[in-house]
Design brief:
380 residues, 41% helix, single chain, Aspartate Aminotransferase, domain 2, 10 strands, 2 domains, alpha/beta
């Protein structure tokens, strides 16, 4: 029983079929001018157009296919910060951002940019007034995630982006790795300049992602070469991965509303089971948060022992973000939210998807309490 879908999802069988078929039938270099190359280019552009349509971005945005959200975030932040440095060298991001955003901002800070890291409120989101007060005439890039990968907190990117546009000339970047393919997300009419995501978060392939950028936004590339992807990402395009990403996104949005409602019920049921256990505290709120993620801290029990105990029953959950799990024993996100080291050291994450079943949820609820009791008794 898998409850770590925020880390990654299994590729959909139809996505694998698409990848295999396109790899076999459209293998030519899409930059080549002979017929097989032109056919491959046509397939690549069909995938690009489909992604833009599904995100409500057709006609106003470009889709640059990348190797995943980490690469997309690096491209978005490094390229925009360096391009607009004559306007100013002040960056803004949030305290609970993914490492692929925070570490880029830290790297830019070492290069001479000034960085403001915004705190979050008790729900885990950035308050609009906090952002407003941080903006300055020399602010050139603001990067705030849509949905937090550890606690599921949802930033109001429309309101926050509106403030960025009203109060500054900054570029607004949104890491949407935990919302694309799960939320009803349309870029039509939004204040978002750059949006990034990975396909493997919604049943696509690892090593596949995209950077969606405003048509009017002209940025230099991060890497130079043959000028592929409109000159922004050089290197021979992987047509099969692009087609697979488009297929995964289309499939993930089918029956989205029904899946969202069903997962909300699962989250509520597990939250009730967790709160029935003494010294368990939820991190974040149930309202105005992603139904796909729930996070809690368990007083007096090390999270690794909880993971191991559940794993012995073939139930798999996680502690901190999978990208950080091997680096630290404390969740920086939970600490930013609560200000308590003990809460941050004892947090676990449970995450769902359209594949999660009611039977799996019932089993997790039944096993969790007795396991915690047993671990506490053993500790005594």
């Amino acid at each position: 029983m898998y409850f770590d879908y925020a880390a990654t999802t299994p590729p959909h069988s139809e996505v694998l079929k698409t990848f295999e078929a396109v790899s076999r039938d459209f293998w030519a270099n899409p930059s080549a001018l002979y017929r097989p190359g032109l056919r491959a280019e046509s397939m690549l552009e069909q995938a690009r157009l489909q992604v833009l349509k599904l995100l409500g971005a057709e006609g106003k945005y470009r889709c640059v296919f990348t190797g995943g959200a980490t690469e997309s975030n690096n491209m978005a932040l490094f390229c925009s910060a360096r391009h607009f440095k004559k306007r100013g060298k002040h960056l803004i991001t949030g305290a609970v951002e993914h490492p692929s955003v925070l570490e880029v901002c830290r790297a830019l800070e070492r290069e001479g940019w000034e960085l403001t890291v915004l705190p979050v409120n008790g729900c885990g989101v950035v308050e609009p007034e906090t952002l407003r007060q941080a903006l300055r005439p020399d602010t050139t890039v603001v990067s705030l995630m849509h949905v937090n990968n550890e606690i599921g907190a949802v930033n109001d990117i429309i309101e926050l982006g509106g403030i960025v546009k009203e109060e500054s000339n900054a570029v607004f970047h949104v890491d949407a790795a935990q919302s694309v393919g799960k939320f009803d997300l349309s870029l039509d009419g939004t204040p978002v300049d750059l949006l990034t995501f990975s396909a493997h978060k919604f049943f696509g392939l690892k090593g596949s992602g995209a950077l969606i950028m405003k048509e009017r936004l002209e940025l230099p590339p991060l890497l130079y070469g043959g000028g592929q992807e409109s000159g922004f990402r050089s290197g021979t395009a992987d047509v099969a991965r692009a087609a697979a990403l488009a297929k995964a996104l289309r499939l993930s949005l089918e029956n989205r509303a029904e899946i969202y409602s069903r997962v909300e019920l699962f989250k509520g049921k597990i939250a009730a089971a967790l709160l029935a256990i003494p010294d368990v505290e939820l991190n974040g709120t149930l309202e105005n948060s992603s139904p796909f993620i729930i996070n809690c801290s368990i007083g007096g029990v090390r999270p690794e022992t909880v993971l191991q105990g559940l794993a012995e029953k073939e139930i798999f959950i996680s502690t901190v973000s999978a990208c950080s799990a091997r680096k630290t024993a404390e969740s920086a996100v939970v600490f930013a939210l609560t200000g308590k080291h003990e809460r941050a050291k004892t947090s676990i994450r449970i995450s769902f998807s359209s594949l999660t079943t009611g039977e799996e949820v019932d089993t997790l609820c039944a096993e969790f309490g007795p396991l915690i009791d047993a671990l506490r008794f053993k500790k005594k």
